[in-house]
Amino acid sequence: MEKQIKYCVTADIDWANEKEIKYMLDWFKKNKIPITVFATHDSQIIKKSFKPKDIGLHFNFMNGDMLKVIRKLRKIYPDSYFFRNHCFFNNTPMLIELHKQGFVFDSNICTYMADGLKPILNCAGGQSYPVFLEDDVLLLHKNMDKEAILNKMSSEGLKIINIHPIHFYLNTPDMEYYTLNKINKIPYEGYGIRTLFIELLLTLKYKGHKFVTFQELIR
Ligand SMILES: [Zn+2]
Question: What average pLDDT does range 203-217 have in this prediction?
């Protein structure tokens, strides 16, 4: 057997509705693959499916007052202690403020299947765990080549995977489809992001690789 690798699947919720979140979580539950969510808003399905400490936060610092944004989301999920920001927004005042508020772990760096990733000691003194593979980065690069992606996935280094409930639900094949269907929400019936990720994850699972939550990874 190939060397066993640990994969960590995460999802940035990005204000998806309950139906879309449930659709994604149900698939992971059914296939016994753990997933860690980074929440954006009050969601009963998230609160029901995870322990309070196991939910990460996905702050939107693209506009608005930083402290207000932190306060608002922390009020909904007061036990969270790790984060990843919307659009991977990053700067030193934000890192320092969140660190001060107990957020010593983040997954707030995005790569395109970079080799040899490892946790990075950031300027605030916390640990940043880079993302290896993300659905909309694949869409950006128009990369649906399962075999080439699987090949990269067997390389050395951290393997954090990030998906979005809306792309999983819509089975987004490309950004044009997403733009045209994000309002009427008609899932794509051909080969899209959902079919690709399902094939990738099940292939890794059947090869005997291990899936862990983000909390297990940072432990
Ligand atoms: Zn986001």
Answer: 97
Distance 4 CA to ligand 1 centre (A): 30
Q: How many Å lie between the centroid of ligand 1 and the Cα of residue 38?
A: 9
CA of 60 to the centre of ligand 1 (A): 7
Query: Which residues, at least 6 apart from 94, have a Cβ–Cβ distance to it below 8 Å?
Result: 61, 66, 85
**DSSP H or E stretch at residue 82:** strand 82-83
Express each pLDDT in 42-66 by its tens digit: 999 999 999 999 999 999 999 889 9
The CATH number fitting domain 6-218, selected from 3.40.50.1100, 3.20.20.140, 3.20.20.370, 3.30.1700.10:
3.20.20.370
CA of 1 to the centre of ligand 1 (A): 36
Q: Could you identify the residue written with the tokens 């969270």?
A: 80
pTM exceeds 0.90 for this model = yes
